[in-house]
Amino acid sequence: MDKTWNNKAWFMVLPVLLLVAFSAVIPLMTVVNYSVQDTFGNNQFFWAGTEWYQEMLHSERFHTALLRNLLFSFTILAIEVPLGILIALNMPRKGWGVPVCLVLMALPLLIPWNVVGTIWQVFGRVDIGLLGRTLSQLGIHYNYVQNPLHAWITVIVMDVWHWTSLVVLLCYAGLVSIPDAFYQAAKIDGASRWAIFRYIQLPKMNRVLLIAVLLRFMDSFMIYTEPFVVTGGGPGNSTTFLSIDLVKMAVGQFDLGPAAAMSIIYFLIILALSWVFYTVMTSYDAER
Amino acid sequence: MDFSWMAWTWPTAIFFMTILALLVGMAVWEYVSPGGNPRVGVLRFETTRGDRLFVSLLGSAFINLAWLGLVGPNLWWALALSVVYAIGVFRYV
C-alpha cells in the first residue's frame, strides 16, 4: 500500500511543539543566556562572555563532582542491569506468583524520591536505624554520617533498592514476549541454559535493555533528592554529585552565571553519553 | 511584549538565530530531497542528515569547550575548526 503524504499533518503536532518550547526549549535558552552574564540580584545583568565556562572547566570542584557522578552512574549500572536480568529470569511466567512478583517489584518505584531518602536516612542511623543498629551490634563499625565509604555504600544500595525493579520489569516484559517456539527449538537442539540465555533471551531483551540502560544512566547522572536527604552531600563533599553541587551554587550561593555554565556543560555530557549508549546499542541490534 | 526582564543579549540571540536557521535549512533540504539521505559512513552505522547535524552541533560544542579549557577565550579559531569538523561529518559520516 502506498504511503499517503500530507504535510498538513504537521499542524497536528503544533500544540505539543508550543508546549515543549514553553516548558523546555525557552528555559534551556534562558540558561544559555545566563551562562554568559553575571548578576548581583535585582534583575540586573552584566556581560561576562565565556568567563564562567573557563572557570568551570578549570574548577577542581566541578571535576571531582563530575568524576563522582560518573563513578556512581557506572557502579549502579554495573549492579542494577545484571541483577535486574537475573531477577527477571527467575520470576514466574504463569500462576499466582506473577501478579505477586509484579506488585512487589513495582512497590519501590511508587515511593517518592524524598521518602526513599528519608527511609534510608533513618534505616542507616546507628542510634535508631534497623540497619545501622544491627551492623553495630554485629561488631561492624558502620557510620554513613562520618565515613565516606559507608556513605557511598549506603547511597549505592539505596539506589539499587529503589531502581533495580525498573530494570526487572523491563526485562520481564522482554522475556514474556518470546514465543514458546524458540524454547522448543532450543530444547530439540539440546541447547544449554547459558546458550538459551545468550542466543534467545538476551537478543530478545536487547531493546528493553537499551531503554533500561538509558533511563538508569540519565536518572543516576541527574540524581539529587535521595543522596541529598541521606547524606546532604557529605561527609565533607564525598557524595556531592553534580546536581547537588549545582543547586548549592545556584540557590545557596546565588552564583547564577557559573551555575548556568555548569548546567550547560552537564547537559552536553549527558547528551553525548546518552547518544553513545543509544548508538552503540542500536547499531549492535541492526548488525544482528 | 516586553522581554527585557529575560535579559537577552545580542550574542545569545545571534547564537539561537543561527541554530534556528540551521533547522529551517534542514527542513527545506528535507522538503526538496525527502528521506534524510541515509548512508553508512566512517562510523560504520547508518546516519541520516539529521543525525549528521546533531553530531556536528554536539561535536562543535565540545570543540569550543576544549578550546576554552586548553587554549583560551578567543573562540574564532574554535569556530573555524567546528565548521571544518561539520563539513567532515556531512561528507564522511
From TrEMBL, chain A:
<keyword id="KW-1133">Transmembrane helix</keyword>
<keyword id="KW-0813">Transport</keyword>
<dbReference type="Pfam" id="PF00528">
    <property type="entry name" value="BPD_transp_1"/>
</dbReference>
<dbReference type="InterPro" id="IPR035906">
    <property type="entry name" value="MetI-like_sf"/>
</dbReference>
<keyword id="KW-0812">Transmembrane</keyword>
<keyword id="KW-0472">Membrane</keyword>
<feature type="transmembrane region" description="Helical">
    <location>
        <begin position="70"/>
        <end position="89"/>
    </location>
</feature>
<dbReference type="InterPro" id="IPR052730">
    <property type="entry name" value="Sugar_ABC_transporter"/>
</dbReference>
<feature type="domain" description="ABC transmembrane type-1">
    <location>
        <begin position="66"/>
        <end position="277"/>
    </location>
</feature>
<dbReference type="GO" id="GO:0005886">
    <property type="term" value="C:plasma membrane"/>
</dbReference>
<comment type="similarity">
    <text>Belongs to the binding-protein-dependent transport system permease family.</text>
</comment>
<feature type="transmembrane region" description="Helical">
    <location>
        <begin position="12"/>
        <end position="36"/>
    </location>
</feature>
<dbReference type="GO" id="GO:0055085">
    <property type="term" value="P:transmembrane transport"/>
</dbReference>
<protein>
    <submittedName>
        <fullName>ABC transporter permease</fullName>
    </submittedName>
</protein>
<feature type="transmembrane region" description="Helical">
    <location>
        <begin position="101"/>
        <end position="123"/>
    </location>
</feature>
<feature type="transmembrane region" description="Helical">
    <location>
        <begin position="160"/>
        <end position="183"/>
    </location>
</feature>
<feature type="transmembrane region" description="Helical">
    <location>
        <begin position="208"/>
        <end position="225"/>
    </location>
</feature>
<dbReference type="InterPro" id="IPR000515">
    <property type="entry name" value="MetI-like"/>
</dbReference>
<feature type="transmembrane region" description="Helical">
    <location>
        <begin position="259"/>
        <end position="280"/>
    </location>
</feature>
UniProtKB/TrEMBL annotation, chain B:
<keyword id="KW-1133">Transmembrane helix</keyword>
<feature type="transmembrane region" description="Helical">
    <location>
        <begin position="12"/>
        <end position="32"/>
    </location>
</feature>
<dbReference type="Pfam" id="PF09928">
    <property type="entry name" value="DUF2160"/>
</dbReference>
<keyword id="KW-0472">Membrane</keyword>
<feature type="transmembrane region" description="Helical">
    <location>
        <begin position="53"/>
        <end position="70"/>
    </location>
</feature>
<protein>
    <recommendedName>
        <fullName>DUF2160 domain-containing protein</fullName>
    </recommendedName>
</protein>
<keyword id="KW-0812">Transmembrane</keyword>
<dbReference type="InterPro" id="IPR018678">
    <property type="entry name" value="DUF2160_TM"/>
</dbReference>
<feature type="transmembrane region" description="Helical">
    <location>
        <begin position="76"/>
        <end position="92"/>
    </location>
</feature>
